[in-house]
Design brief:
The protein is an alpha/beta fold. The chain is built from eight helices and six strands, in the order βαββαβααααβαβα.
Length: 246
């Protein structure tokens, strides 16, 4: 049984996984998209489905964008056989001077939530996430359609979680096969945080993670063939990913 649980990042929602879900389902995968419920969609609790054939090889894959892996329940993450980290991090705010400046900026973003400056702050975040691609290429999101009252509180809580991250998420499986996909032009996750993720994975994993770097892509990873290449990697069709690797 081949299953995927996908989790979006901060300010996003489950609709961003629409093309991914359709592609994977067309190739024999069971797909579930997590939902934080920042906007009109209700939060969604996720769980692995039971395999009707206990003797069969199980594939339990987590695909997470940005903060997504930190938003999953630890027991669920611990049961993953494979993890794909898209523009992700273990510790978002690096230590040192660069980290202090970033922390100040994030605290400013938090103060905007629930005020007249909220919309402008969120639009700026989307522009930085999409860059160098125009943010018009991004899928619909709660930022564009409006936050719910409870969703706004979740957004603030999750921003605080992002600022507080210091390591891999609890429950991260040491035996999992892991793929890290970084964006060369990421304006959200700084280079120091990407390097820290690699060090943390090197220490934690029994088998080193694979690393791809997408040239010309920003944090949103708006590469139309990425979903196909990730599916090929999961299905063992590694030759199709070589042009993506650096």
């Amino acid at each position: 049984m081949k299953q995927v649980i996908a989790m979006h990042g901060w300010s996003g929602d489950s609709r961003s996984w629409g093309p991914w879900g359709r592609h994977f389902q067309n190739h024999g995968w069971i797909w579930q998209s997590g939902e934080r419920g920042y906007g009109s969609l209700e939060p969604r609790q996720l769980h692995w489905q039971k395999d009707p054939d206990p003797a069969a090889r199980r594939r339990r894959v987590v695909i997470a964008h940005s903060l997504g892996a930190h938003l999953l329940a630890s027991p669920l993450l611990a049961e993953a056989t494979d993890v794909v980290l898209l523009a992700s991090f273990s510790r978002f705010v690096p230590q040192g001077r660069a980290g202090r400046a970033l922390q100040t900026g994030l605290q400013g973003m938090e103060r905007c939530i629930g005020t007249s400056r909220e919309s402008a702050m969120l639009q700026t975040f989307l522009e930085r996430a999409a860059a160098p691609t125009p943010n018009s290429a991004l899928p619909s999101s709660p930022v564009n359609e409006g936050l719910s009252e409870t969703g706004r509180q979740r957004l603030q809580n999750d921003l605080q979680l992002l600022m507080a991250t210091t390591a891999l998420p609890d429950g991260f499986p040491a035996r999992a096969r892991v793929l890290v996909v970084n964006a060369e032009a990421d304006a959200i996750v700084v280079a120091e945080a990407r390097q820290q993720l690699q060090r943390d994975l090197d220490t934690h994993l029994e088998v080193p993670a694979d690393l791809w770097v997408l040239s010309g892509c920003g944090h949103a990873l708006l590469a139309p063939d990425l979903l196909m290449r990730v599916r090929h990697w999961l299905d063992g069709e590694d030759a199709s990913t070589q042009s993506l690797s650096q």
